[in-house]
Amino acid sequence: MEKKSSKRTNRLGRGLSALIPEIKEGIDSKDIISIELKNIYPNETQPRKVFDEEKIQVLSESIKNYGVLQPIVVKPDENGKYMIIAGERRYRASKMAKLKEVPVVIKDIPMKDIMEIALIENLQREDLNSIEEALAYKGLIDHYKVTQEEISEAVGKSRPHITNTLRLLNLGEAVMKMIESGQMTAGHGKALLRISDKELQEELAKRVIEEELSVRATENLVKTIAENNTKEVPKKIKEKDIFIVDVEEKLMNIFGTKVNISKGKKKGKIEIEYYNDEELNNILSMMLEDN
């Protein structure tokens, strides 16, 4: 375990506290300068894409009353402008408060480290949705040849979690937006990955939202479509009544085969599966043994 921790320190995961220690420990006032807000711009590789406007508004009101208490950390570019390393919420709130200048600390940090900082800091605060998280992982892998194992060590999440999160990027764009907006969860998205047709994926995702299906119900819906090799979506998915499930299990124990009970408004149906003539004769014998 000691060895693994050492590797983490030398590779990814140094985070803001290691790369810019004075931010966590208290910045020396001589390092803080004021820069016009118009000369500052967000980092396009920032993993966080969705910001809570209500929280930004609250922060903006605080800034109007007390000013920006913690400086924004920026990186200078070749055009005399400054890219945000940390503090985009403060930047957005300051713009909303119509400030002309904000306090900043300038740090000339490599872009790879900036991406690591942004990813780790957002994950620690649980600020990222699953799609943003997946895009951040992909950015590190594609641009900086970081391995999933290294990301796992850096962010403190398991390797399977990294892999499964990355798989969400195989969903259709419309479905990913539904996850980003919080209309459904990453669990729903993972269930829909079994459907390769993007139009069908989107149709199922809309059904999930409209009917407020659980992840389990979504998995069952997808399984039904996949097993039947059809693009036709069942009209309604309902959780099966616990009494019906209990009766099915009792009948399955009696007949030794799969039993399905479907219940309608006026009538129901019991389906008993068999796979050869011998099984059919055995079922019939049990049903007719008292006659």
From TrEMBL:
Coiled coil: none annotated. Residues 33-123 form the ParB-like N-terminal domain. InterPro entries: Chromosome_partition/occlusion, HTH_ParB/Spo0J, ParB/RepB/Spo0J, ParB/Sulfiredoxin_sf, ParB_dimer_C, ParB_N. Its main location: cytoplasm. GO terms for cellular component: chromosome; nucleoid. Keywords: Chromosome partition, DNA-binding. One of its GO terms (biological process) is positive regulation of sporulation resulting in formation of a cellular spore. Belongs to the ParB family. PANTHER family: CHROMOSOME-PARTITIONING PROTEIN PARB-RELATED (PTHR33375). This is Stage 0 sporulation protein J.
